[in-house]
Design goal:
The chain has 331 residues and is α/β, with parallel strands linked by helices. The chain has two domains: 125 residues, Response regulator (Rossmann fold, 3-Layer(aba) Sandwich); 168 residues, GAF domain (Beta-Lactamase). The protein has a five-stranded parallel sheet, with helices on both faces. The protein has a five-stranded antiparallel sheet with strand order 7-6-10-9-8, with helices on both faces. A hairpin with a 6-residue loop joins strand 6 and strand 7. Helix 2 runs parallel beside helix 3 and helix 6 packs antiparallel against helix 11. The longest helix has 52 residues. The C terminus is likely disordered.
Length: 331
């Protein structure tokens, strides 16, 4: 019973001190009160695991205290002590939700600690069940989210692979990702023929003039670093200091929103040819493995569509695509 805290309520000092001494010998943290009113005030500001109260209290009885506790703190267990074990009192206590009823005198504490052990076992079991139910609910929400993302992914893949040309394919890839992941900004950048510079091919949520300015080349910075690493990335909140140091001012001011960042490489025949970057989460939910998995899968299928179309060489010749912002899709 280590770590447990009990509130002892009794207006008779000898009885109250005797109970408190027995409890402290078992390393139980003890609070004390002499009246129902004092007990309720303590419960309003202190953490308590169980209330041990005398039934015959001045002004308002222990049964009244039991009733108030169960109305205010229904999960808090109450054990009553009394010299009057009448069937009426016992029935009233059980109806009001008392966990147990102990008849005084309490000498050695054997009956008391037996009741306390049962009560604490019951409390621990209830807390464990509550934690399991909470975990189950969380898992169910995650499963529902996964199923919703899977359905959205299938629909987005259909749209991407059905795109009639390269412009439509990239526009659909970016639009689908931003729509499903609910982000503020996004762009797709591809390496040039020499794999030396990244240029923006399509964008959304980014000023048109900024996108056009960087169609031939982005300044060396965070985007280029992430693309060369060829690894997906999911961040919630602000950029950490190490990544912020890598970013060029153009990126932090115009290309990458806040909070949150998702990035996935675009691969062709196991080679990174570009990157898709999304930022500025709008729904309040932090980016996680589901969102990153969605983006990775969508990027993978877009690369397959590119390979099948046999048009990647056109991009490496320097052909640029219009910004979504320029086509009226800019938010």
């Amino acid at each position: 019973m280590d770590g447990k805290r009990i509130l002892v309520v009794d207006n008779e000092p000898p009885r109250r001190e005797h109970l408190m001494r027995l409890l402290r010998e078992r390393l139980i943290d003890v609070l004390e009160a002499t009246t129902c009113e004092e007990a309720l005030q303590l419960l309003a500001r202190e953490r308590v695991d169980l209330v041990l109260t005398e039934t015959e209290l001045p002004a308002k009885s222990g049964l009244y205290l039991l009733k108030q506790v169960k109305e205010l703190l229904p999960d808090l267990e109450v054990i009553l002590t009394t010299h009057n074990a009448s069937s009426y009192n016992l029935l009233q206590a059980l109806r009001l939700g008392a966990y147990d009823f102990i008849v005084r005198p309490i000498d050695t504490g054997e009956i008391l600690f037996s009741a306390l052990e049962r009560a604490f076992s019951h409390i621990d079991l209830r807390r464990q069940n509550a934690a399991l139910l909470q975990e189950l609910a969380s898992n169910n929400r995650a499963l529902e989210r996964s199923l919703a993302m899977l359905q959205a992914l299938n629909l987005s893949i259909e749209r991407v692979t059905a795109a009639p040309d390269i412009e439509e394919l990239f526009m659909e890839l970016l639009s689908s990702a931003m729509r499903e992941l609910q982000v503020e900004r996004g762009f797709i950048a591809l390496f040039d023929r020499n794999m030396s510079r990244l240029g923006i091919k399509v964008s959304e949520g980014i000023p048109t003039e900024i996108s056009r300015l960087h169609t031939r080349g982005l300044p060396p910075g965070l985007t280029t670093t992430l693309a060369r690493r060829g690894k997906p990335l999911a961040l919630s909140g602000e950029l950490p200091p190490k990544l912020k140091q890598l970013a060029d001012p153009v990126e932090t001011e115009n290309l990458i929103g806040s909070p949150g960042l998702l990035a996935a490489p675009l691969r062709l025949r196991e080679r990174v040819v570009g990157i898709i970057v999304l930022s500025g989460q709008q729904n309040g939910s932090p980016f996680g493995e589901h969102e990153l998995g969605f983006l990775i899968q969508l990027s993978h299928h877009a690369a397959i569509a590119l390979e099948k179309a046999g048009i990647i060489h056109q991009l490496r010749r320097g052909k640029t695509l219009p910004s979504l912002a320029g086509s009226g899709a800019n938010g």
